[in-house]
Design goal:
This is Secreted protein. Keywords: Signal. The protein is mainly β and about 110 residues long. About 10% of the residues lie in helices and about 30% in strands.
């Protein structure tokens, strides 16, 4: 029995799928009001309007299938460059130290 078109496509997509879960909070230590929940990708993502100004910390959670060689990276610029001001492999990360962050993405550990 030969594989279907969908099965072939899944073979190429699944190794690159990322299911990280980010929960944005207004308070320090991932406390306070929950602002948003997002599933980031390797593409640079800008937080929605107002989200970056009100977020103080982010709970970073790896999901099944996420690679050990990946981290979450947070940037001051919306182009996710030059270098992240905060990174995390999981847990709570403070992002307010950069006045307000402008981009985030899944990155490869160096």
């Amino acid at each position: 029995m030969s594989p279907t078109f969908c099965q072939i496509i899944l073979l190429f997509i699944l190794p690159f799928a990322s299911a990280w879960r980010l929960t944005f909070y207004s308070g320090i230590g991932c406390r306070g009001q929950r602002i948003a929940i997002r599933t980031p990708t390797q593409e640079c993502t800008e937080p929605s309007e107002g989200m970056s100004a009100t977020t103080t910390s982010v709970l970073v959670q790896k999901e099944p299938g996420d690679l050990d060689s990946e981290i979450m990276a947070f940037y001051q610029l919306s182009v996710c460059a030059p270098t992240p001001f905060a990174t995390s492999e999981g847990g709570c990360v403070r992002v307010s130290s950069a006045s307000s962050f402008r981009g985030y993405r899944v990155a490869t550990k160096l």
